Amino acid sequence: MLWNVITSDAVMEPLIIILVGYALQVYQRNRRYQIILDTTVDIVDYIEEHYKEWGIKGHKKMEKFIELFVKEFKKATGRPPRKDEIETAVLRAEAHVQRARRGEALRSRDRRVA
């Protein structure tokens, strides 16, 4: 009896719709986050390769990052990034640069020791 109620169309159809909606939300959130991460790493690497020839340093590099991030994010998603998405990208960019610097520092220290 209870099994018939649980598996009835009146219960299962809304449940399936809710689950599909939730799955789509999770997918979109993960896709957006992956776009932010991939775009951030690519732009940071691009800027690090070219900042000297562009003649920019310090905060100008971050301004260039934000400019390029907004453009690339819009290309990937069809809409400009929200403020929180830009903030996430900036944090990820700074973390990526710091990891790269720590890696360089460790490599140079290893060369001095050897």
Tally of extended strands? 0
Instruction: Provide the low-confidence segments as ranges.
Output: none
> How many H/I helices?
4
User: What class, by secondary structure content?
Assistant: mainly alpha
Strand/helix succession: HHHH
Terminal Cα span: 77 Å
Outline type: elongated
The fraction of residues assigned to DSSP E strands is under 5%
Into how many domains do the coordinates divide? 1
Whole-number mean pLDDT? 85
Largest sheet: none
Gyration radius, to the nearest Å?
Answer: 23 Å
Helix percent band = over 70%
Structure description:
By secondary structure, the chain is mostly helical. The protein has one domain (31-113). Helices cover 89% and strands 0% of the residues. The protein contains 4 helices and no strands.
Keyword list:
single chain, 114 residues, mainly alpha
Topology:
Blueprint: H1 2-6, H2 9-54, H3 59-77, H4 83-113
Tell me briefly what this model is.
With 114 residues, the protein is mainly alpha-helical.
